[in-house]
Amino acid sequence: MSHIDCDTCIIGAGSGGLSVAAGAAQMGARVVLIEKGEMGGDCLNSGCVPSKAMLAAAKQAHAMTKGAEMGITPTVPDIDFAAVKDHVARSIATIAPVDSQERYEGFGVTVIREHACFTSPDELRAGDTTVKARRFVLATGSRPLVPPIDGIEETPFLTNETIFDLREKPDHLLIIGGGPIGLEMAQAHRRLGCEVTVIEGARALGKDDPELAGQLLSMLREEGIRIEEQAKVTRVSGKAGAIRVETETGAFEGTHLLIAVGREVVTDGLGLEVAHVKHGPKGIAVGADLRSETNRRVYAVGDAAGGLMFTHVAGYHAGVIIRSMLFGLPSKAKTAHIPWATYTDPGLAQVGLTEAEARERHGDALKVIRARFDENDRAIAEGRTEGMLKLMAVKGRPVGATILGPEAGDLIGVWAIAIASGTKLSKIAGAVLPYPSRGEINKRAAGNYFSASLFDNEWVKTAVRAVQRWVP
Asked: Which InterPro entries match (predicted)?
């Protein structure tokens, strides 16, 4: 049995853990990183990267069926489903060296590829090594939630951890769950030639703005995706190639089943009780500083911290705790500026408050401004005018933004920065942007905030007429 003393011991080599390890080690701290699975975590190996690679292939296939209005003869693409999965695998393999054990050892991090379990509040065991640390960081991430549906234990099903290994195209994919993961996989498989049925017990995209989420759902249905809402699943049954899902409103049959109802935090097997770390189904009990409420040596980041489950949140959390751990500076995590996106085509992105949330919080002080893509010259030139930007503003500052349209996840960045920095809409309205670009819709929305007060105001018009008499 070997023993290591260090400044920081991190459990989990996903986005949050890797960010903490790289930052701390390169600034002189003694760092141990423990990972029992694949380096890079869920995002690289079974989440963000493979899903976006598959969506990209599906987008290429879909583009071949369009273009008549531009003089391009549509054609039915010949899809090699196994080759699509090869593209997915290559994408993962290309990014993997950035998250590799060798790279982090090059930073001076001691990497241990074993399961970690606390043996006391300031010590843990990983394989045949014990680690004693001044600070511990739990970056254990999450895994697909498999609900206790009647028949689920006897019925073959897929999750995001297994679906990318499937090399034969499903004839009819049944998806339980109408959130971002479910709908992204629904569109990807539909565009790659599968029949797809999405079964959602409540409202699909229930956390997003109902107006724009409803428009996106309509577009997905037009592509041939069957989306059943308010259909609570009561039982699943069948065998490979013949699956049946029963709900309170009817039954659905297909060849494959994907469970995409959410995720659960990974905390089991860590010995958290021995470490005196309070935790529950939603993760580690932490304060705004991301420190454990019951063991001040322990921090949690990303999904383990029990908040928003996004890769970019884990990276943000890493920056928060590095300031605290390495420099002793007060640092707290916030959520108002955190964006998220559903990467369908068109996409749906959100930051800050939705319209309903903003109305509840700000009442009559709220102004809701809309800017449509059918008024954006680049969108018109590309023949992709669907969607809009909805901006929520109070006293000249943005408090929320929702975007439905191609590359919505890229466009939302302006508003994430504006909300995080408290930028006034006048600054965005006054920005000079390249023409023609989709990004101009952000400037137009900011400008629309001032339009009514400037162009429809009689006092302004009177003042301008008066000034014209004296201006040479």
From this structure: FAD/NAD-bd_sf, FAD/NAD-binding_dom, FAD/NAD-linked_Rdtase_dimer_sf, Pyr_nuc-diS_OxRdtase, Pyr_nucl-diS_OxRdtase_dimer, Pyr_OxRdtase_I_AS
In angstroms, how far apart are the furthest CA atoms of the chain? 91
- Of 292, 327, 362, which residue constitutes the final position of a domain? 327
Q: What's the pTM?
A: 0.94
Residue ranges making up the domain that contains 198:
152-261
Q: Which residues are annotated as a binding site for FAD?
A: 52, 140-142, 303, 309-312
**One domain for residues 315 and 348:** no
Please state, in angstroms and rounded to a whole number, the distance separating the CA atoms of residues 18 and 322.
12
Provide the terminal-to-terminal Cα distance of the chain, rounded to the nearest Å: 89
Quote the CA–CA distance of 347 and 343 in Å, as a whole number.
5
Binding residue positions for NAD(+):
177-184, 200, 262
Q: Are residues 398 and 353 in the same domain?
A: yes
Whether 44 is covered by a domain: the verdict is: no
pLDDT digits over 179-232, tens only?
A: 999 999 999 999 999 999 999 999 999 999 999 999 999 999 999 999 999 999
Task: Kindly report each contact of residues 331-334 with a partner whose C-beta sits within 8 Å and lies 24 or more positions away, as own/partner.
Answer: 331/289, 332/288, 332/289, 333/288, 333/289, 333/290, 333/305, 333/307, 334/288
The count of domains in the chain is: 3
